[in-house]
Amino acid sequence: MARILFLALLSLALFGAKVRIGDEVHVVGVRHNYLTGYGIVVGLQGSGDGTTSKFTLLSIANMLKKMGINIDPASVKSKNAAAVIVTAKLPPFAKSGMVVDVTVASLGDAKDIGNGVLVRTPLFGPDKKIYAFAQGPVSTGGGFSESNRGGKIQKNHTTTGLIPNGAIIERDLPFHFDELPNLTLTLKNPNFKLAQRIVTAINTHFNQPLARALDGGSVVVDFLPDRDRVHFVSEVLGLEIESVNEPTIVIYERTGTVIMSGEIQIDTPVYVSHGNIYVSVQKSPLISQPPPLSGGTTQTKEIVKTTIKEENGRIFAIQSPSLKDLIQALNDLGVSPRDLIAIIQAIKRAGKIHAKIVIM
């Protein structure tokens, strides 16, 4: 059976590339906030939680009680409702009255929550305060799930749905940008050289020592008293600096993908020997049929044949200090992506590759 492997090799040498400060940092305090709530989706056509989900039955009874209807949870038998977890993400500077999308996910054994309606659900922040209320029809993106007599057909994920603009914010976030004593920038990829370049760019642009690096991951910038803060932050984040391109090799073993960034160097010489072992297991039926009118029975058994094939290891020397040249040489030899990954990892363990390796 032929094996098709995908190999993507990308070598980027972008030393001195210009990037915006805003692309390399986060502003402390300017972030998303997650909200979570527990609710009930109603209006399902028998695809909701069954009687084994006791918390759903209890939730329905409690909801009816708040509406003035007292009922014993044990007497609730409806399968048209489902207990769900509701999540939302508040954007920075979210204000009361704004609307955000919410995600709804089944908590019990519901088969499909699509086209159901989420009953008004409070959404709580980490401080256990209510910041929004969610309600509305649930959409699963056209997904469906049908089963009959052991057969089943399903499209998309039917137990997770979305309500566009399904939550209304009721409380402002407890963050006041105008009360910050200074502007703190955290680097997305901490690096001492990049932090120093950010400090130099800011101080040079404003011609005064406003910025200072606390460490390789954060930079503090003093506000100008006579400058509008929004305009000042926009100006700081728009400044350009030279990026620091750390040599990196990203390996995705599932697909055999290798991505290389930066000028990656190898300590030479390096000698590599690599071979493969293939194991093949084949099953073939052996049928023994009795003669006619003998009254015997047909006997069937399987014969299992195992074959092991070992490739001769290829020994080659690496003389070039550039990993890019090594990859080109291995491609010319017809080395598979998975063999290439094994070779790169082995050379790294030997301490001969000067780059960071990320395995996904």
Could you explain the architecture of this structure?
With 360 residues, this protein is an alpha+beta fold. It has three domains: 78 residues, Aspartate Aminotransferase, domain 1 (Alpha-Beta Complex), CATH 3.90.1150; 137 residues, no CATH class; 111 residues, no CATH class. Helices cover 18% and strands 39% of the residues. A six-stranded antiparallel barrel has the order 3-4-5-10-7-6. Strands 2-11-13-12 form a four-stranded antiparallel β-sheet. Strands 16-15-23 form a three-stranded mixed β-sheet, with helices on one face. A hairpin with a 2-residue loop joins strand 12 and strand 13. The protein is flat. The N terminus is likely disordered.
Largest sheet: 6 strands, antiparallel, barrel
The whole-angstrom Rg is 31 Å
Strand order of the largest sheet: 3-4-5-10-7-6
Q: What is the count of β-strands?
A: 23
Tally of separate domains: 3
Strand content: 35-45%
Q: What portion of residues is helical?
A: 10-25%
The residue ranges in which pLDDT falls below 50 over 5 or more consecutive positions are 1-15
Order of helices and strands: EHEEHEEEEEEEEHEEHEEEEEEEEHHEE
Mean pLDDT across residues: 80
Alpha-beta classification = alpha+beta
Query: Distance between termini?
Result: 27 Å
Number of helices: 6
Q: How would the global form be characterised?
A: flat
